[in-house]
Amino acid sequence: MNVRRRPLIPMAAVTALGLAALTACSTDTGSGSGAAGNTDRFDVVASFYPMQFLAERIGGDLVNVTTLTEPGQEPHDLELSARQTARMGEADAVLYLKSLQPAVDEAVAQSEVGTKIDAASLTTLESHGGAGHSHEGDGGHEGEEGSGDALDPHVWLDPVKYAEIAEGVGAAFAKADPDHAADYRKNTETLTGELDALDARFTEGLKNTGTKVFFTNHSAFTYLAERYGLTQEAINGLDPESEPSPARIKELQDEARADGVTTVFYETLVSDETAKTLAADAGLRTDVLDPVEGITDRSKGDDYLQVMDANLAALKQALGSR
Predict the structure, then answer these.
(1) pLDDT by residue (tens digit) across 219-277?
(2) Distance of alpha carbon 228 from alpha carbon 79, whole angstroms
(3) pLDDT score of 75 more than 80
(4) What span, in angstroms and rounded, lies between the C-alpha atoms of 222 and 154?
(5) Rg for the chain (alpha carbons), in Å?
(6) How many angstroms separate the Cα of 21 from the Cα of each of 90, 95, 163, 176?
(7) Single pTM value for the model
(8) Per DSSP, which regions of the chain are E strands?
């Protein structure tokens, strides 16, 4: 197994580490959407599912994790209630990904929670432009007109970058809750080992394919494409709800013929109408490529690792893996 070496995460990258005081007025200690800051465990508020998964796997039985984004809710559009904002202030830590959810960024900035962990500070974000093109070898990030230079937040879809974030989260938990530091380090090591194995499966599974090009509903998969030498062509930009121009649709139809594209991928949490229309017009099939922004009944797996393996299987079929 060819495991990639990740750079060590400097402790300085973990922001505002400290331990907030616990309060006691609730008996709700379950993970998910229960109350935060009112249990005898280390209470963590996670902004959306990929952060929740890290907190639960690294914290294990030592943490009580609540999430701000409910299953099935599109995280980019999240608006926080006053109750959610108040719960954040009662927690021991908040784990979020800056730039993905503006409402969360604002609430975290105003919160007095003792430990604020920004996952974006634990790895390197890149600007991929509005269209999310990712071309093997040339490093190009072409964008549609007006796409700007916004940093792409979808780093969790690259197992290597996600493992870097996991290491930083583990270090943050250990510093904020030192009595259980050894447990957090052990759980982090286990999780990063699983992510290394996932990376190895993607590397091997996508090494020999009939085409390197795949179409997606929006440009969530640019980090993944870059990692494994693929080309993602997104119907929309970074905003999953934006509408493509007729010129963009024509461009994709032409590229499908030129590059042997077989499949237009759509997602579970946003409308599939545009993807299916393009597929019908271009004579392509459709399938799901899940950005793992939330786990629902429609997800092809019960957690991040299972859904990512389902994504790998879908990509291998669409790209003609040999």
Answers:
(1) 899 999 999 999 998 886 545 555 667 887 788 888 888 999 999 998 877 777 878 88
(2) 34
(3) yes
(4) 8
(5) 20
(6) 8, 17, 29, 11
(7) 0.82
(8) 42-46, 63-67, 93-96, 115-118, 126-127, 151-152, 213-216, 231-234, 263-266, 285-288
What is the C-alpha separation between 320 and 314, in angstroms, rounded?
10
Query: What is the per-residue pLDDT for 14?
Result: 43
The encoded tokens of residue 243 equal 């509408």
> Bridge partners of 95?
46, 117
Q: Which two tokens stand for residue 277?
A: 């229309």
Residue with tokens 């007006």: 146
- pLDDT, tens digit (0-9, with 9 covering 90-100), for 95-128: 999 999 999 999 999 999 999 999 999 999 999 8
Residue pointed to by tokens 């996932």: 198
Phi, psi (5° rounding) for residue 227? Answer: -60, -40
**Residue 81 burial by Cβ neighbours in a 10 Å radius (0-12, 13-18, 19+):** exposed
The closest of 154, 170, 298 to 218, measured between CA atoms, is: 154
* Nearest CA-CA partner of 189 in 59, 58, 60: 58
Give the side-chain half-sphere CA count within 13 A for 278. Answer: 34
Cβ distance 264 to 234 under 8 Å?
no
